[in-house]
Amino acid sequence: MAVTVRDAFVHAWSAYEQYAWGHDEVRPLSKAPQDWHDASLLMTPVDAFDTMLLMGLDSGAARAKTLIVERLSFDHDFDVQVFEVTIRLLGGLLSAYQMDGDERFLALAHDLGDRLLPAFASATGMPYRYVNLRTGAVRDPISNPAEIGTLMLEFGTLSKLTGDPRYYDAAKRAVAALFERRSAIGLVGTTIDVETGEWRNRTSHMTGRIDSYYEYLLKSWKLFGDADFGRMWQASIAAANRYVADERPNGLWYGHVDMDSGDRIATRYGALDAFLPAVLALGSDLPRADRLMASVYLMWTTFGIEPEQLDYVTMAPVSPGYVLRPEAIESAYYLYRLTGDTRYREMGRTMVDSVLHYTRADAGFASLTSVVTHEQADRMESFFLAETLKYAYLLFAPPETLDLQAIVFNTEAHPLRHTWER
Ligand code: DMJ
């Protein structure tokens, strides 16, 4: 299986090299390049670099490194989404530096961190969603817990590696400002105004726009040993387990509730929510992690591949696409590595098999518009190479390939280490 997954990675990376070299992404059906902005920020090579190192794909990694150190520039007059650029590029450059040792990766990360830092200049300290890389101008004050709270591992690591505390402090202040605005029952909502601190959408859940806020509370505690994050994690996950968790005849789910009353609003779960078994297991709650993983697997096997969202009462898809997301396979990987129980590796095998079967295209792998019709769409996000294939590979590769206890993965599967303490 490890060889099969590595071959799949080579198929995806070769398509990028052949049809989109120097651009952000390759379009797997039209065999054409795609950029997020007016100039490329090399999303795919930066996201894919550490996966190639872990897979032993040394020549591909060497070509990606040359491209990155010679061509990647952040001096552009356009706005970038702080969250996406942080988890994919800042996280990718920091792990590249830690794994490869070349100072040019750290210099690029340092430059990017400086250009993103103006985003935190709101009245509350919570970042705006977009910042101009050249001017530092900000826009879009209506943000969400995921985009506000999923910066700490990268900004904190940048501070530890450069000795400049400003990045750690800005990211931590933003997390604390968000946590302080939790409801009386301990939940956060879906959207918040970073200028006023007022909630704009008061629905609480574990899916996109909140998901990785929880993940980073726990992982920031683990990576930095900062007890403030431990307190925030324990209070937050206790509230989620009490109010957001939903026991049903077909298993344990986490749905959508009102953040003030805890009243249930919707019975939806999906591909993004599938990160939670991994985080529960990392937080040592193996019983819940196991039960939720069974639900994730039920979601997957009901359709042969997971939908973006389903109604877990009717088991009907609410949003039927599959955009090559990693979270279900990521959870299988964590549960297998943390428990040694091969049931989780078998779940992962089923999931990986179906991804490779349904999504393979001539030029890489393609998203699906529907897990019912299996119609392909012309998009291969960089997280497929950063995350989906990395977790799939690590699930089957020899355990010494990567010691999960020695690193903390950022939410884009870039491994970060405490190298500053050595
Ligand atoms: C990735 O960019 C990250 O895993 C993020 O936390 C959620 N969205 C995608 C993968 O689904």
Widest sheet, order of strands: 3-4-5
What kind of sheet is the major sheet? Answer: 3 strands, antiparallel
Helix content: 40-55%
Q: How many helical stretches?
A: 15
Strand tally: 20
What does this structure look like?
This protein has helices at 2-20, 43-55, 58-71, 82-100, 103-116, 145-149, 152-162, 166-180, 211-224, 227-244, 276-282, 286-303, 327-339, 342-359, 383-396; strands at residues 25-27, 32-34, 79-81, 130-132, 138-139, 142-143, 191-193, 199-201, 203-204, 245-248, 251-254, 256-258, 264-266, 268-270, 309-311, 316-319, 360-361, 364-365, 408-409, 415-416. With 422 residues, the chain is of the alpha+beta class. The strands form 8 sheets. Strands 3-4-5 form a 3-stranded antiparallel β-sheet. It is globular. It binds 1-deoxymannojirimycin (DMJ).
Keywords for this structure?
20 strands, 3-stranded antiparallel sheet, binds 1-deoxymannojirimycin, 422 residues
Brief digest:
The protein has 422 residues and is of the alpha+beta class. The protein is built from 15 helices and 20 strands. The protein has a 3-stranded antiparallel β-sheet with strand order 3-4-5.
Topology of this structure?
Layout: H1 2-20, E1 25-27, E2 32-34, H2 43-55, H3 58-71, E3 79-81, H4 82-100, H5 103-116, E4 130-132, E5 138-139, E6 142-143, H6 145-149, H7 152-162, H8 166-180, E7 191-193, E8 199-201, E9 203-204, H9 211-224, H10 227-244, E10 245-248, E11 251-254, E12 256-258, E13 264-266, E14 268-270, H11 276-282, H12 286-303, E15 309-311, E16 316-319, H13 327-339, H14 342-359, E17 360-361, E18 364-365, H15 383-396, E19 408-409, E20 415-416
Antiparallel strand pairs: 1-2, 3-4, 4-5, 6-7, 7-8, 9-12, 10-11, 12-13, 14-15, 15-16, 17-18, 19-20
Helix pairs in contact: 1-15, 2-3, 2-4, 2-15, 4-5, 4-7, 5-7, 7-8, 9-10, 11-12, 11-13, 12-13, 13-14, 13-15
Bound molecules: 1-deoxymannojirimycin (DMJ).
